[in-house]
Structures are given as structure tokens and as C-alpha cells.
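Why do we care about 3D structure at all? Because function follows from shape, and shape follows, mostly, from sequence. That is the central idea of this module. The next example makes it concrete: a single protein chain, its amino acid sequence, and then its structure expressed as C-alpha cells.
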Amino acid sequence: GYFIQGDDVVTWVVGHVLHQAEPGDYDDKYIRWRPQNLPIVPDEWKLLVTDSSRQQFEIVKDLISKADVIVNAGDPDREGQLLVDEVLYYVGNTKPVQRILLNALDEKSIRSALDDLRDNKDFHNLYQSALARARADWLIGMNATRAFTTKYFKRLVVGRVQTPTLAMIVKRQEEIDNFVPQPYWLLTTVYK
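And the structure:
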């Protein structure tokens, strides 16, 4: 779950060690899918430790409690920022956090990035952006899926990205299925 290099300890989170709570985790009334309970909008968002990551989460949590300074080496994008920051917030970390931005893993690039550590707070907007996307996905997915499923009595999964993508595929397939050949001409010229 970690390794030691000199005075430093390196650990990792593999994907989402935390996940958003399901509606039933907020209130038992949401366990059964009923249209009168929609929309579901949490007053306070909950995260839960993912069962498959529990052992690694406990290692990371213990190491955070022993650290003087934490360096966030998550992927240099909004999802990478979210994965590390949500763990730090979840465990109530109050220790200083620095951010390393690695674009390559060769020794020269790593040393250069270590010489240019930044305050993790500088990336809070990146975290907020990822959090907004995750919560929008949850709100649309949980509410729209339940709404359509209870209305049509058939499991219909609805998602912020999935649904418009499937709509494009269906539209294209309909164009292919309803294709009517049209005459056309090619212009050919001969010149010297």
C-alpha cells in the first residue's frame, strides 16, 4: 500500500476510493423507486468508502495522520484533482498540501516538478469543477433514470453523457434505415 524513499512515503489511490452515496443511503424512503419522491436532491452530499478500496483507503488515512506535509501527485486534470482532494476532505486533513504536476515520469521531469511544487489550494477550482460534474451526473442519472423507469415500467438508464450519445447513434441509424438513393452526377473535364 506504500513505499518509503528516504524521508518520504509514497502511497496511492487507485481510481475512486470514495463514491457518492446512493439515494437509499440518504433516506430509506428512496430505496423503493416512487415518482412522488422525485427529485432527489441531497441537502448535504455523502461519500462512502468503496468496498474494494477499503484496505488501501485505511493505509492512506493512516499515512495522512502521520504526515507533516502532503504532496498531491494525482493526475494533472480535474478528475485527478478530485480523487486526491476528496480523500483529504473526507479524512478532515488540516496539514499543508502541495501539488506536483507531472507530465512525464523520467528522472529529469520528476526533479523539475519537485522543484516547482505549488500550493494545492491553487487547484481548488479544478476540484470544484470535477465535483460539479460528478454531482450533475448523479442528479441527472438518479432522478431521470427513476422518472423514466417508473413512468414506463421498464428499466431505462439515463445519463448526462450517455443519453445524448445514444440519441446521436439512434438518429444516424434511422438515417441509414430510411436512406433513399438520389441520382447524382460527377463533373469531369478534359483540358490541355
